[in-house]
C-alpha cells in the first residue's frame, strides 16, 4: 500500500480501518502521518478509522516513544497491534500423537500440551479429547474461553480449505469428508462454556511451512517444506501465502510413484512414502530385528546413533532427493526445508546427494537446503498465524468491527 495514495478497496471505497490495521501490523506504517501518506486519507479520516481500532482494543500506542513524522512537524506517537485482547488455540495432529497450545496473537506459546492421541480412533473421539485439552490449557495459561478468537488445526491429510474437510486422507481412516470445524467448535463450547469461534483446518505440512516461512524466512518468496514422518508431504508458500492447489492436494509428494513394488497405505504400489517415509524405514528395521514401529521410533534410534537406522535414513533421503529434484526444478524455491522424524544428518545427506546430482545447477544456485527451526512447534505456530491472518485481514476486520458495534 505504501506509495499508493488514495488506495481504494472493494467497490471503490477508500482504505478502511481494516486496511490501516494491516499497515500497522505489517510495520509498513506505524504513525498517523505515515498512515496518511500510505493511504492518501485526511488526518481527520485517519483519526476516525484509528478510533474504531482503539475502541475495539486492537491497537495501542507503542512503548518506543515519539518518532519523526514523514509529513514534518511534531514527532508522532507510534502505533502497534495490541496482542493482549485475545488468544488463539492451535493443535497439530499426527498419526499417534498430538500437540496443542494457547498462543498469543503474535505467536507466543502461553501454554502447551503434548500427548498420545490416535487419529485412527476417529474424528469424534479425537476432536472431543482436543476440546478437553483446550479447556485445561486455557486454565493453565490464565485465560478464559471468552478470550479465544479462533482455533487452528493441522491434520496429516489433504484438506479442502473452503470446507475444512479432509479429502480422501490415506492415513486418517474415518475422517474423509467429516465436519471437523463443526465438531471441534462444539467440543470447545462444551468444555469451556464459551461461544463458538471460527475453526480453520489445514494440512500439517502446509502449516509447518507457513510457520517456518513467516518466522525464519519472511523475505523468501518461494519456500518449500518437506515433512518426512509416518508419511511424506510438502508445504509450499509463495509470496507469503500457502499454495494449496485446486482442492488442497498440492504438495502430496508422498504418493508420487518411484518404481518400487512396495504397497502404500493409499492402496497403490510404488509410492514414495511406501519406501522412504519414517514408517517405511521402521518396517525395514523391524524386519531385521530392530524394535521400531513408527517414524518416532526411527527418530529415537537416529538420535542414539544407531548405524543401521542411519544407513536406511540416508537411503530414504536419496529416494526423496530424487523426487525433490523435480520439485525444485518446477518451483525454483529459495529455501527447501526438511522437517519431521527423519530430519537429521543422514537423511539430509542423502537428499543433497541426489538433489544436486539430478537438478540443473540453475535450479539450485540460490537454493538453501536447511532443517526445521521451530521443530515440533512449527505446525502450531503456523496454525495460529493462519487464524490471526484470517481474522485481522482488512475485509474480515471490517466485518468484525461492525459485528462488535464499533
E-strand count: 14
Name of the CATH architecture of the largest domain: 2-Layer Sandwich
The number of distinct helices, counting runs of at least 4 residues, comes to 14
Strand content: 15-25%
Strand order of the largest sheet: 5-4-3-6-9
- Measured on Cα atoms, how large is the radius of gyration? 23 Å
Helix share, percent: 40-55%
**Total discrete domains:** 3
Main sheet makeup: 5 strands, mixed
Give a structural overview.
The protein has three domains: 72 residues, Arc Repressor Mutant, subunit A, CATH 1.10.10; 145 residues, 2-Layer Sandwich (Nucleotidyltransferase, domain 5); 155 residues, Nucleotidyltransferase, domain 5 (2-Layer Sandwich), CATH 3.30.420.40. A five-stranded mixed β-sheet has the order 5-4-3-6-9, with helices on both faces. Strands 12-11-10-13-14 form a five-stranded mixed β-sheet. The chain has a two-stranded antiparallel sheet with strand order 1-2. It has 14 helices and 14 strands. Helices cover 42% and strands 17% of the residues. The N terminus is likely disordered. Helix 1 packs across helix 14, helix 4 crosses helix 5 and helix 8 packs antiparallel against helix 10. The chain has 406 residues and is α/β, with parallel strands linked by helices.
Amino acid at each position: 500500500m505504501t506509495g499508493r495514495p488514495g488506495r481504494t478497496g472493494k467497490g471503490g471505497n477508500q482504505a478502511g480501518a481494516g486496511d490501516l490495521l494491516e499497515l500497522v501490523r505489517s510495520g509498513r506504517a506505524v504513525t498517523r502521518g505515515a498512515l496518511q501518506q500510505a493511504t492518501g486519507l485526511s488526518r481527520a479520516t485517519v483519526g476516525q478509522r484509528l478510533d474504531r481500532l482503539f475502541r475495539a482494543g486492537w491497537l495501542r500506542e507503542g512503548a518506543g516513544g515519539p518518532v519523526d513524522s514523514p509529513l514534518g512537524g511534531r514527532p508522532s506517537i507510534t502505533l502497534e497491534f495490541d496482542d493482549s485482547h485475545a488468544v488463539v488455540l492451535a493443535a497439530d495432529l499426527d498419526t499417534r500423537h498430538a500437540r496443542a497450545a494457547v498462543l498469543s496473537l503474535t505467536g507466543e506459546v502461553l501454554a502447551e500440551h503434548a500427548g498420545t492421541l490416535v487419529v485412527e480412533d476417529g474424528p469424534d473421539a479425537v476432536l472431543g479429547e482436543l476440546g478437553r485439552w483446550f479447556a485445561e490449557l486455557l486454565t493453565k495459561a490464565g485465560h478464559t474461553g471468552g478470550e479465544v478468537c479462533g482455533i487452528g488445526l493441522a491434520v496429516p491429510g489433504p484438506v479442502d480449505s473452503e470446507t475444512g474437510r479432509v479429502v480422501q486422507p490415506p492415513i486418517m481412516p474415518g475422517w474423509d469428508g467429516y465436519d471437523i470445524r463443526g465438531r471441534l467448535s462444539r467440543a470447545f463450547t462444551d468444555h469451556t462454556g464459551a461461544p463458538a469461534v471460527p475453526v480453520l483446518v489445514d494440512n500439517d505440512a502446509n502449516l509447518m511451512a507457513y510457520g517456518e516461512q513467516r518466522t525464519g524466512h519472511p523475505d523468501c518468496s518461494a519456500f518449500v517444506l518437506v515433512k518426512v514422518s509416518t508419511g511424506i508431504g510438502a508445504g509450499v508458500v509463495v509470496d507469503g501465502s500457502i499454495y494449496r492447489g485446486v482442492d488442497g492436494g498440492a504438495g502430496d509428494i508422498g504418493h508420487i510413484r518411484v518404481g518400487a513394488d512396495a504397497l502404500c497405505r493409499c492402496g497403490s504400489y510404488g509410492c514414495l512414502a511406501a519406501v522412504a517415509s519414517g514408517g517405511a524405514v521402521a518396517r525395514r528395521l523391524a524386519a531385521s530385528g530392530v524394535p521400531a514401529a513408527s517414524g518416532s521410533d526411527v527418530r529415537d534410534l537416529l538420535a542414539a546413533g544407531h548405524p543401521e537406522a542411519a544407513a536406511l535414513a540416508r537411503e530414504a533421503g536419496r529416494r526423496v532427493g530424487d523426487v525433490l529434484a523435480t520439485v525444485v526444478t518446477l518451483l525454483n524455491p529459495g529455501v527447501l526445508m526438511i522437517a519431521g522424524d527423519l530430519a537429521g544428518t543422514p537423511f539430509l545427506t542423502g537428499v543433497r546427494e541426489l538433489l544436486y546430482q539430478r537438478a540443473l545447477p540453475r535450479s539450485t544456485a540460490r537454493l538453501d537446503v536447511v532443517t526445521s527451526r521451530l521443530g515440533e512447534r512449527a505446525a502450531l505456530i503456523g496454525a495460529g498465524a493462519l487464524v490471526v491472518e484470517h481474522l485481522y485481514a482488512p475485509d474480515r476486520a471490517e466485518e468484525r468491527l461492525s459485528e462488535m458495534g464499533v
